[in-house]
Amino acid sequence: MDIQTLIVFLIVLAAALFIGNRFRRTLLAARATTGKGGKNCGPDCGCSPH
Amino acid sequence: MEEAAAGTISAPAAPPPAESPRGGGVLHVALIGNPNTGKSTLFNALTGMRQRVGNYSGVTVERVEGRYRDGDASVTVIDLPGTYSLSASSPDEEIALAVLTGHAPGIDRPDVVVVVVDAANLERNLFLASQVLELGLPTVVALNQVDAAEAAGIRIDAIELTLELGAPVVPTVAMRGEGLDVLKSAIRKAPGLPRPERQFELPVEAAAALVPVAQRLTDAGFNPSAAAMEALRLLAVREVGRHLQAVPELEPAVTAARARVEAAGLSPISLEAESRYGWIADVVDRTVHRAGAGGARTVTDRVDAVVLHRVGGPLIFVALMGIVFQSIFAWAEPLIGFVEGIFGALGGAVASAIPEGDLQSLLVDGVIGGVGSVLVFLPQIAILFLFIGILEDTGYMARAAFIMDRFMRSVGLHGRSFIPLLSGYACAVPGIMATRTIESRKDRVATIMVLPLMSCSARIPIYTLLIGTFIPPIAVAGVWNLQGITLLAMYLLGTVTALLVASVFKRTLLKGQARPMIMELPPYRLPRLRSLALSVGHRASMFLKKAGTVILALSIVLWALATYPKTEAPAGASEQQAQESQLAGSTLGQLGHAVEPLVRPLGYDWKIGVGILSSFAAREVFVSTMGTIYGVGSDADEGSSTLREKLRNERHASSGAIVYTPLVAVGLMVFYVYAMMCMSTIAVVIRETGGGWTGVRWAAFQFGWMLGLAYLSALLVYQGGRALGWG
Question: What is the ipTM metric for this complex?
Answer without folding.
Answer: 0.74
